Structure formats: C-alpha cells, structure tokens
Amino acid sequence: MDAVFKALADPTRRKLLDQLYLHNGQTLGELCKHLDMTRQAVTKHLTVLEAANLVVTVWQGREKLHYLNPIPIQEIYDRWLNKYERRQLNALGELKRTLEDNTKETEHG
Amino acid sequence: MDRPTFVYVTYIATSLEQLWDALTSEAFTQQYWGEGQLQSDWQVGATVQHINPDGEPNWQGEVLQSEPPHRLAYSFQPLDATENQPSRVQFELQQYGTLVKLTLIHNRLDAQSCLTISRKWTASLSHLKHLLEIADGLALVA
Questions:
Q1: Which stretches of chain B sit within 8 Å of chain A by CB?
Q2: Which residues contact B19 (CB under 8 A, 6 or more apart)?
Q3: Looking at the structure, do residues A82 and A44 belong to the same domain, yes or no?
Q4: Using H for helix, E for strand and C for coil, what is the string for B44-62?
C-alpha cells in the first residue's frame, strides 16, 4: 500500500492516470503527446505506477498498451469506507461534482 | 483484434485451484456478485448464463477458452442485444511467489456497459480477494 501512495504523490503520475482514465489502453507514444516531458521521463513514471499496480500493460501485436488498474484504489476505499455510508458519500460526491462543474485536477494541484 | 476495453490485475493470497473454483462455482459467484450468479459447466462451447436473484437470466454467453486453473474466457451479451458483437472477458491466473496474479481482460464493451461493468468488476474482484484471503485467515491489506 505504501507503493500506491508514493505513486499517487506526484502530479505527473496523477496526470498519466487521468489520461488513461479518459482513454484507456494507450501506447507510450500516445501518452507522451499529452506531456511536456522526454520519453525516458514518462517511462520512469510509468514504471513507478506499474510497481504500485496502478497501471498494467498488455501486448497487442507489437504495441504495448497501458491500462489504468483501479484495484488498489478500490482496496483503499474498502479499507476506510464503511459500506453503510457509501450511498451518502456518493451523493455528496455527486453534489460537489455538479456544483463545481467537473473541476480539473490542475485547479486542485 | 480491437484493443481491450480494460485490464485489471489483482494479487490474491490463495492457490490457483481455489481461485479457479471461486471464479467458476455457482455458490461463490452468488456470494461475490452480491446479486445473481453465473451458471455454466465451463467446458469450451458451453453456455454461460448470469441469473438474477429472481431466477431470470440477465445475460448469456459462451465459454471460449477453459484451461483450469490457468485460463478462462467467455463471451458476454445482454439477452436483448442481438445486433451488437458480444463482449469478451478473459481471466488469466498465474502463480506469483506465494500469491496468485489474476488478470482480467475485457474486450468490445460499449461506453455504457463499460461504465457499469467496470464498477461492478472492480468491486467484485476486491470482494473476491477479501473472501479468499479471509478464508485463509490472512490479512486483507498488506
């Protein structure tokens, strides 16, 4: 679980996860288009995300595709969220999203 | 072949055989799906049905691959959707030290099914991990 929090504690890595959330299954080249960084730097960040099991890869022919793997996040959710309060928390989350009109990660830092 | 719609990986402290049994047993699918269960004899070419708690089928598919305890794949289609190409789900089970690595690959999901199924799978897999590891008397979170 330390690896998950360490991996999430970096804005570039969160941005990579955001990109995969929008379009799952991207190649390294496709991911690099959204970031002002060298291929090597992006590869390093992806390695950290893979070590935390937040990103998983599959080969499709000669393409290596990256997928957002939400299982570790689900485990965090399961650990601290009581199952009886999930509906209320979902309602509050929905309320916040509606009022803030999908505030972007960049505005929150 | 299209790119997979999503890929999930989880590591579970259990054995290949127990995980295979969990993924295929009626009692266990009922327990971890929360509602309804999967029915099939899990032979290649056999039908897979998801039966809701009222005993009615929700969706149906066909077993495409069955290599216990390593690989299981089946197609997946709502009963009212006759025109769409069926979705496909594939489970791969690999020993990973003392853990079992479970990879779930889903192909050809439309956007709406993707949203609902993705949430369901994530919760189900987490629940499955929980059940198998509690059964072994191991801690849920390392």
A1: 1, 3-11, 103, 105, 118, 122-123, 125-126, 129-130, 140-142
A2: B12, B69, B93, B100, B102, B132
A3: no
A4: CCCEEEEECCCCCEEEEEE
Picking from B4, B8, B123, the nearest residue to A25 by CB comes out as B4
Count of CB atoms within 10 A of residue A68's CB?
23
Cα of B12 to nearest chain A Cα, Å:
12
* A11 and A51 fall within a common domain: yes
**pLDDT, tens digit only, all 109 positions of chain A:** 899 999 999 999 999 999 999 999 999 999 999 889 999 999 999 999 999 999 999 999 999 999 999 989 988 888 887 767 777 777 777 777 777 765 555 555 4
Residues of B in contact with A58 (CB under 8 A): 4, 7, 105
Domain of residue A87: give its range: 73-108
For each of the domains in chain B, give its residue range(s) and CATH number, in order of start. Answer: 6-135 (3.30.530.20)
Regarding whether A44 and A83 lie in a shared domain, the answer is no
Q: What is the ipTM of this complex?
A: 0.74
pLDDT category of residue B138 using cuts at 50, 70 and 90: very low
The structural domain count of chain A equals: 2
Indicate which of A4, A22, A24, A50 best probes the interface with B, i.e. most B CBs within 10 Å of its own CB. A24
**Does A61 share its domain with A83?**
no
Same domain, A26 and A40: yes
